[in-house]
Amino acid sequence: MSELPVVDHRVGVSVRARLVYAAARLMLRPLMTYWPLNPIGLCPLPLVDVAAQLLPTPRDTEFERADFDGFRGEWARAEGVALDGAVLYFHGGAFIACGLATHRHAVAKISAACGLPVLSVAYRQLPAVSVAGSLADCLTAYRSLLDSGLDPSRIVFAGDSAGGHLAFATALAAGVAGLPRPAGIVALSPWLDFDPATKLAHPNAARDAYAPASRLPRLSMLCTGGVAGSVLDPLSSPINHQLADLPPVLMMAAEDEMLRCDAELMAQRLALAGVPCTLQIWAGQVHAFPVLGDLLPESRAAIHEIGVFIRAVTATAEAVDEPAPELRALAG
């Protein structure tokens, strides 16, 4: 059993990435620092996804609506993908924003990279439901894949930020419900610990391109249903659960982002639990940078590596005589 995770530092920073980082620091950080986290402030946030619908639909990808009880999803199928597996993708947005449209380009790129369809889930969010309600929707989507006859060894959970939280939480909830575990988990800048103490004390609290650490206490209370001064339930955070039954994990985080703390601690705990885990730390990037797709060369490179990981963990016995090299390396 390994007690050290595989940590891979990526140090090259493109000019375009530097510009995106500077723009986020200049424009997004002030907005996110002062945006009101109250019922009035939360009301217009669904418009973020509405506005994203004005973006051109990605080429060479077929999209199909998927309806569930109380929420919906969307299939993204790049050209030539296999239909005997799937990636279940949970979008980010701090459980209060974003949706199918904001992440349509990212899931299209992931589908092409891994050779599988991606089911993007528009789970219900605050204030309509609690985080537990969001998790219930994600578990429902997983059950639907299993009910359709897909082999869980050909299913991977993926998500960014709050969606990274849900990728882990859904895998843990599946185990509690007696469902088979998926083949792997991909978590991009995951928010895994609602307790803000470590993040508030870290130097990245001031370095993050646009996510202000000062908002974490209020946002954590919203997500956990707490009130000022209340004690957070440790089990509201995936990082505090028993992790030994989880499948192989790939995580990515920006070097200077606030949530790097969560990714590093989760990587350590996964390794102690004997779960194969690789954590990539990318210099000069913004939070959840792989979601930016073609905008950055680093985003394209990250999505390629996501595809390599997914292909490795979903490789069938018929397809390979021994574990894929990428998975052997992941297991350390």
Layout of helices and strands:
Blueprint: E1 6-10, H1 15-34, H2 39-42, H3 47-52, E2 61-67, E3 72-78, E4 86-90, H4 104-114, E5 118-122, H5 131-147, E6 155-160, H6 162-176, E7 184-188, H7 197-201, H8 204-207, H9 216-224, E8 249-254, H10 260-272, E9 277-282, H11 297-313, H12 325-331
Parallel strand pairs: 1-9, 4-5, 4-6, 6-7, 7-8, 8-9
Antiparallel strand pairs: 2-3, 3-5
Helix pairs in contact: 4-11, 5-6
Descriptive report:
With 332 residues, the chain is α/β, with parallel strands linked by helices. Helix content is 39%, strand content 16%. A 9-stranded mixed beta sheet has the order 1-9-8-7-6-4-5-3-2, sandwiched between helices. The protein is globular, with a radius of gyration of 18 Å. The chain starts with 5 loop residues before the first strand and ends with a helix. Mean pLDDT is 92; it is low at 317-332.
- The total of helices stands at 12
Biggest sheet strand order reads 1-9-8-7-6-4-5-3-2
Shape: globular
Structural class: alpha/beta
Helical percentage = 25-40%
Mean of residue pLDDT values: 92
How many distinct beta strands? 9
- What is the N-to-C order of secondary-structure elements (H for helix, E for strand)? EHHHEEEHEHEHEHHHEHEHH
Separation, N- and C-terminal Cα atoms? 10 Å
Rg, alpha carbons:
18 Å
- Low-pLDDT sequence parts: 317-332
Beta-strand portion reads 15-25%
